[in-house]
Structure formats: structure tokens, C-alpha cells
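User: As part of a screening pipeline, I want to sanity-check one entry by hand. Below is the sequence and the SMILES for NAP. Please return the complex as C-alpha cells so I can compare it with the automated output.
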Amino acid sequence: MKLLVLGGTVFLSAAVAAEGVRRGHDVTCACRGASGSVPEGARLVAWDRAAGAPPPAITALEPDAVVDVARHPSWVRAAVDALPASHWVFVSTVNVYADNATPGGRAGTIPLVEAVHTDEDPSSGPEVYGAMKVGCEAAVASGAASSTIVRPGLVAGPGDPSGRFTYWPLRLAEGGETLAGGAPTDVVQIIDVRDLAAWIVTCAEQRTSGVFDGVGPATGVGDLLAEVTDGVSSDAVLTWVPDDALADAGVQPWAGEDGLPLWLPRPEYDGMLSHDVEPSYAAGLVTRPVAETARDTLAWARQHPVGARTGLSREHEQRVLAAWRTTRK
Ligand SMILES: NC(=O)c1ccc[n+]([C@@H]2O[C@H](COP(=O)([O-])OP(=O)(O)OC[C@H]3O[C@@H](n4cnc5c(N)ncnc54)[C@H](OP(=O)(O)O)[C@@H]3O)[C@@H](O)[C@H]2O)c1
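Assistant: Here is the complex for your manual check:
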């Protein structure tokens, strides 16, 4: 198969290109090459999508399948217009959903936010980002010969520039009393970047038509963190601090420098990380154990210590735990 990856120098799109090469496909990556190099065995064609239409080297390629991770609707429209005959796998996000509270949803059962078809700043917040992804999805659905739309939840694993899962393997590997947020029964789900990439390549090979969530199995966060603890061979012990005490201590949910990853306000976000994975399994997704993701993520993070700063500092964590001990007395 001739596979065109629009991206290929970062995390997921790089993993897709690597998986395509591993399966013996003819893989071309089109991007600026500003964020890194493409995987060995793939070729890079330089294209700055902000500067306009694809170069002749892309339009002449006639790929069997295109994988796109873009956030800007005009970028996706330009690419689909140039390559309408290919099968498209568009990587969207669960931020397209207007309802984050209802657990067990899947594509088709949860309403979408209204589409934005113009290019806004996707880093201005999840609402704008999600709305632009709905616009991108629409461009693919209306312009491509056939398409798979994949809406990932939290993507984890080696190479993650966000640090939103990596915090946990690193923290739990240190051992000792460890701050955990909310209740152990709060449901969460992650997907290993390598499993998501493998499934995306399968969808490209099989020209799978449909809209799916790119998620792993939903589980209580207590069970997930126990698997992470196993994966990094740690003796860490979790102390669960409820939402209001964390908020009082200046801990932010989800991400950021004072953020506690995987902790989300409840019940408002009961649905965001509890999608129904069964339709994706039926379409060929295979997921590995969380312990394996944790072990490999830890190994990668130790080799790449200068990553995104996500997750509260140890000093902040210990202050929160000390305040909680005082409260409980
Ligand atoms: N991480 C998560 O937990 C999560 C959750 C839900 C959805 N998602 C989705 O999953 C996908 C992640 O993709 P990703 O890991 O590959 O990272 P990404 O940051 O979405 O995409 C990075 C790729 O886009 C290319 N790019 C950026 N600006 C460009 C430009 N002006 N022209 C051409 N190419 C450009 C980059 O190459 P150069 O910079 O080298 O040009 C790089 O290869 C995205 O679609 C994201 O929305 C992620």
C-alpha cells in the first residue's frame, strides 16, 4: 500500500508512519520536518500546510490511503481536495463531543459540538479545538472516497509530548506515599499510542468506513494506577484526596504545572474517559496491558527527561498530603 502520513515527526503520526514501514508499506510523510525526523524507512516530502496547497510531489503520489492529524479545517480541505480518491483516516478527538458527563457513549450516541469551519487558534481551549475537529471531520466525510474517523481519548506511551500520562509512571516509580485525586472508582481510559497507530494502519489497509472512538478499556482509576504501579515495579502507596480538598490546595485537574493527571471534576467529566470501546475492538483495535504501557513510558521518559512540564511538583504534592493529614485528624 502507498501510505501518505500528513505529519510523521511527532508522537502519534510518527508511530503511524513507523507501523506502516514495519508492515512493509511504501510510506511518505508530508510536513515541514520542523518537529523532528520521520521514522527510518519513511520518506519526507516538505510541505508547510499553513502556506497553501500541497506540492506536486504530493499530488502526484496517488496514495492508497492518507492519515491526517491536522487541527485546521482549511488544511484538511486543501489536502482532501488534492487527494479525493484515497481512503482517508482522519485523527480527530473526543473533544468533538458536546456531552462529557454521560458514561458509556460511542460515536452516534453522544451529540457533537457545532462545527467551526474556519481556522482559529486550536490551543485556545478544548471547545475551539473540538469544534475545529468537527469541521475537519466534515471536510473528510464530504470530500474523500471513503474514510475512517478516529476520535482518540487520552493517548499514552513513549514519545508523548504532553506528559499527561507520563506523570504517573515517573511518580509511581519513585515510590512512597503518593497523592491520588478523587475516588479510586472514578472511571478513566487510556490508549497506547502504538496500539492506536497499529489500528489506524489496519483501517487504512482495510479501507474501514465509519466513525470510532480511539480509546482503551474503561476502568476505575484505582485499578489503572495499580497496573501502572505493577508495570514500574514500585512499592508506592496511594493516598486518595477528595476533589474539594485538592481544589482548596491549588491542584488543577488533568494537566498543567499544578495539574494532577487523570484527575477530572466529577460528575461533569464522568463520560470523557469512559467511552464504549467495543465498536473499536470490533473494527480491529487490539490493546495491550496498561502495565506494559507504563513500563515502556517510564523507560522512554528516563531517556528524554526534558519533556513537557505536566503534573504538580513533589514539593506541592507533599504539601497537599500534609494538609490532608491535618484535616483528617
Ligand atoms: N495526545 C492525545 O492525548 C490526543 C487526544 C485526542 C486526540 N489527539 C489527536 O491525535 C493526533 C496527534 O498527532 P501527533 O501526535 O502526530 O501530533 P500533532 O501535534 O497533532 O501533529 C504533529 C504533526 O503535524 C505536523 N505539522 C505541524 N504544523 C505543520 C505545518 N504547518 N505544516 C505541515 N505539517 C505540520 C508536524 O510536523 P512538523 O512540525 O515537522 O512540520 C507533526 O508531524 C492529533 O490529531 C490530535 O488532535 C491526541
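Points to compare against the pipeline: Residues 7-13, 31-35, 47-50, 69, 71, 91, 93, 152, 154-155, 162 surround NAP (CB under 6 Å). Residues 157 and 297 are 5 Å apart (CA to CA).
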